[in-house]
Amino acid sequence: MIPLRDNIPARTFPFMNYAMIGICSLVFVAQLSGVSEDETLVEQYGMIPVRVLHPNQTIVVAVERPVDTPRGVELVQEEHTVPLAAVPAWLTMMTCIFLHGGWMHFLGNMWFLHIFGDNVEDRLGHVGYLIFYVAAGVLASAAHLATDPTSAIPTIGASGAIAGVMGAYSCLYPHARVLAIVPIVIIVQMFVLPAWVFLAVWFVFQLYQGVFSIGAVEAAGVAWWAHIGGFVSGVIVAFVLNKIHYLRPEVDEIRPHTDHVGAYRVYPRRH
Predict the structure, then answer these.
(1) Could you give the domains of the chain?
(2) What pTM was estimated for this model as a whole?
(3) pLDDT of residue 215
(4) Lowest mean pLDDT among 126-140, 185-199, 228-242
(5) At what angle do helices 103-124 and 15-33 cross, to 10 degrees?
């Protein structure tokens, strides 16, 4: 499911949310501009679980590289020494959330952040949202670290932090609705879904994949437990902050007009 928009208007300009999108964009441009150095950048600033736990240990991994041979280009397995982190190894649990592995990874993450982040910032305030976003990213990294502590594969991406934002959104806006594209076999349909349904389906998918990935080969390339850890931490933090009345008041919701998908009207807030 791909969200197009929700029905909760932002009361204030989401400075921090756009700042996070801007920082990730600049880092991604830096990755693209130095394609030959991208692997080193990922290894130096990405979170490698075994390096976080053993920062001074030499890590040697087997990698496949293309080599020209008389029969054409073939993949040859070589030993590769993983470089030391450019920052303290524990700090890569935070720096990794600003790196991405490709265009789809980057665009997907930034779009989800754009859809859900502004409303969470509305409730937490600008500074509170910044702290929450970074903390959710670190907790997501910690969840991946706990479930795969011997991995020597760099973990990168804002997905865990954004999962935290989505978890907070599900807690703070239980009556929100999301206009989403839902592919059904070969047919693409647009539906207005309760936000909790959209987010619950997303979370259940992550949980299913996370449980399935335990003990499986790492080549799947997705840190499912980072998503799960980020989402759960977002729910818990938002729930606690709401209970202690730390959050800013809710904003009026806009419900979709039933006559036209995507047409919206303003309604009084539900209590």
Answers:
(1) 2-60+86-262 (1.20.1540.10)
(2) 0.83
(3) 55
(4) 185-199
(5) 160
- Amino acid in the structure at residue 67: V
The pLDDT value given to residue 217: 45
Top pLDDT among 24 and 218 is at 24
Is residue 69's pLDDT more than 80? no
Q: Which residues of 136-150 are buried (b: 16+ CB within 10 A; e: fewer)?
A: bbbbbbbbbbebbee
Query: Tokens at residue 259, please?
Result: 């006559």
CB of 226 closer than 8 Å to CB of 208:
no
Instruction: Specify the DSSP class assigned to residue 245.
Output: T
DSSP 173-236: -TT-EEEEEEEETTEEEEEEEEHHHHHHHHHHHHHHHHHHHTTS-GGG---HHHHHHHHHHHHH
Q: How much is the average pLDDT of 197-220?
A: 71
Per this entry, what is the length of the chain?
271
CA-derived radius of gyration, the chain: 20
Angle at 9 between CA 18 and CA 179, to 5 degrees: 95
